[in-house]
């Protein structure tokens, strides 16, 4: 089971992951994750840390912070908002993220 952390804010979760060596920034792009000039397909990375934050007053304020480790050794962070509003091209990546997030419970 992946560690799930409960910090007061998304910023605090990011700071803690940075202290654990997750220094790169991942971004979602056309059915892959991108970090600098590298692209990672769904099988090229593992999600090792998850932090899920729900806004107090607005469900649209939700965010998930993922600590991601690529098979090539890159450790970084991906922050997502509401995954339902994501580009359909990213479906396999979003599915992997959601399955990992839902397993935390």
TrEMBL record:
It comes from the Bacteria. This is Phosphoribosylpyrophosphate synthetase. It comes from Flavobacterium beibuense F44-8. The lineage of its organism: Bacteria, Pseudomonadati, Bacteroidota, Flavobacteriia, Flavobacteriales.
